[in-house]
Amino acid sequence: MEREICSIVSNDRVAKDIYKLVINSKSIIKEASAGQFLHIKPSLNYDPLLRRPISICKADSVKGHIMLLYRVCGKGTRLFGGLGQGDCLDIIGPLGKGFPILKDKKAAVIGGGIGIAPLLELCQNLNSPDIYMGFRDEVYFVDEFIKHSGAFFLYTEDGSRGSKGYPIEALARNISSYEVVYACGPKMMLSKVKELCEANSVECYLSMEERMGCGVGACLVCACESSEENYYKKVCVDGPVFNSREVKFDDRYER
Ligand SMILES: Cc1cc2nc3c(=O)[nH]c(=O)nc-3n(C[C@H](O)[C@H](O)[C@H](O)COP(=O)(O)OP(=O)(O)OC[C@H]3O[C@@H](n4cnc5c(N)ncnc54)[C@H](O)[C@@H]3O)c2cc1C
Ligand code: FES
């Protein structure tokens, strides 16, 4: 883990409230792998105080560029949105445990909304996985994924692009073709992916999201329920990527 002041190469809006940020990195990039995250101070002063976790979307070690994809939803990400080329960010990373890269297994990757962010670096490192993606309405960034996919399944909730509905529907039809499934997205989707994979004895890795404080295992803000009775895992150091059998979702997310 390194602390680095990174200059911004570009920060472009790619859809409503969605931005692609590219930063220069000399040290963090050396250790970065798919599924890990960066803990970023939204400003160079103390307001807001806490860093915000953002996943590594793509790491280009030749150029020394790390690409991030983020959704503006509150004070911190709104500050990110106001930054431009040449501005600097105070970053700690890479943090957490990423995705195991199981190149020899037939893989499916499923993402929902901004949850697609950590999946691009993963897809690049796998052998043309089948990709399942879902968005509420506006679709973004799919061309980046299609380059690295076998079959590609696109869903929108309103049916404006791809099929109407949710990508889990197509994954459920094809699940017997896969040896491993990787997922990131809303908890409802992750809970269904876990249930589907476990019912079909398919290995499954989920990238979990919880609010974070320290990002390094000291504050317990990010605790999530583990499948072991009365035991919690820290998303920042035990995850964010977990084998589906390690985590439990509360009743709200289970049918
Ligand atoms: C490991 C990890 C990786 C992440 N990767 C990305 C990414 O690649 N791109 C991206 O856009 N976002 C990502 N997030 C979520 C991102 O960290 C939050 O959206 C961000 O911290 C919100 O900060 P804010 O100051 O803008 O919003 P705040 O003002 O702090 O909150 C605004 C709203 O967002 C909710 N919120 C805040 N943090 C989270 C969270 N962690 N999970 C769910 N809801 C939250 C709040 O409850 C509130 O409703 C990731 C989160 C984690 C834990
Ligand atoms: S964010 Fe502090 S322990 Fe995970």
From TrEMBL:
This is Dihydroorotate dehydrogenase B (NAD(+)), electron transfer subunit. [2Fe-2S] cluster binds at residues 214, 219, 222, 236. Residues 1-101 form the FAD-binding FR-type domain. Binds 1 FAD per subunit. Keywords: 2Fe-2S, Electron transport, FAD, Flavoprotein, Iron, Iron-sulfur, Metal-binding, Pyrimidine biosynthesis, Transport. It comes from Lutispora saccharofermentans. Signal peptide: none annotated. FAD binds at residues 52-55, 69-71, 76-77. The keyword Phosphoprotein does not apply. Pathway: Pyrimidine metabolism; UMP biosynthesis via de novo pathway; orotate from (S)-dihydroorotate (NAD(+) route): step 1/1. It comes from the Bacteria. PROSITE patterns: FAD_FR. The lineage of its organism: Bacteria, Bacillati, Bacillota, Clostridia, Lutisporales. Its cofactor is FAD; [2Fe-2S] cluster. InterPro entries: Cyt_c3_hydrogenase_gsu, Dihydroorotate_DH_ele_sf, Dihydroorotate_DH_Fe-S-bd, Dihydroorotate_DHASE_ETsu, FAD-bd_FR_type, FNR_nucleotide-bd, PyrK_electron_transfer, Riboflavin_synthase-like_b-brl. Belongs to the PyrK family. Pfam families: DHODB_Fe-S_bind. Responsible for channeling the electrons from the oxidation of dihydroorotate from the FMN redox center in the PyrD type B subunit to the ultimate electron acceptor NAD(+). Heterotetramer of 2 PyrK and 2 PyrD type B subunits.
